[in-house]
Amino acid sequence: MTWTRKDLLGLEDLSKDELELILATTDSFKEVSTREIKKVPALRGKTVVNLFYEPSTRTRVSFEVAAKRLSADVINISAGESSVRKGETLIDTGRNIEALKADIIVIRHNASGAATMLARQVQVSVVNAGDGWHEHPTQALLDIFTLKEKLGQIQGLNVSIVGDIAHSRVARSNIWGLTKLGARVTVCAPEILIPPGIEQFGVSVTHDIDEALRNADAVNVLRMQFERDEGGAFPGELEYFKNFGITKERLAKAKKNILIMHPGPINRGIEMSSEVADCPNSVILEQVTNGIAVRMAVLFLVAQARDKNHETIN
Ligand code: CP
What we know:
Blueprint: H1 16-30, E1 47-52, H2 58-69, E2 73-78, H3 90-99, E3 104-109, H4 114-121, E4 125-131, H5 137-151, E5 158-162, H6 169-180, E6 184-188, E7 204-206, H7 209-214, E8 218-221, H8 237-244, H9 248-251, E9 259-261, H10 274-277, H11 284-313
Parallel strand pairs: 1-2, 1-3, 3-4, 5-6, 5-8, 6-7, 8-9
Helix pairs in contact: 1-11, 2-11, 3-4, 5-6, 5-11
The structure holds phosphoric acid mono(formamide)ester.
């Protein structure tokens, strides 16, 4: 199978073969970070621009580290410190970055669809680093890579996603990726945080945290996005922790080796207790480490596809 897409915008459009190709490419790049000199020349001479309209710690740093390990030049732009503050549109910003001869734009934006809109307007590769509530494909890929690394395969796994499903791009990308690869996905949250009709995406729904944990091989715990609670309809922090928080007592009734995952940032004492976040079952920091190899794979594949497309056109 050959990768032909110049962009990575989400997992919804990807085939099972494409997902498996990214995971296999990630596997081959993972070893680079264990070397004394953690660098390969795969993207030497290329320029990657990280264009972030929203705050980020893990994703931005991880894309920067990934691009540098591939020997690319990296430029970071925070919208708050750019000409966006003077009213420049996303498309104009993208076209100017293209005019500056960048090869890949990695974009995080608060609007769902922003990465797709940009990709249609520029010839450079666009990688979605999270757009609104829509998708966060590289987060789901690193979650899936971590699951596969720890448990051997995705096919047949029971994965529960717990938390603010309604506002979560991480949940959406995980659902697309996991179901295509044959996992059984259960989502668990208070009713108000589950989008109506989500079952049509091939997932089970429960509002009972003990049920979500009972047969799970892994639980991916999402951040409660209280900042989105405009109408005051969300449960309070204490109420949420009491009814949905992952605690040692709740885990005592789950599978002994259940993996505890979280995309970060964690709100300790709300989504999970500190002792769960730091317990031996937790792979939260391994997810972060795997993000580097996943993003190396994605940057490499989209750059290669764009070069091939260029050769065909010229
Ligand atoms: N998981 C994630 O997207 O974290 P950041 O917001 O820190 O990038």
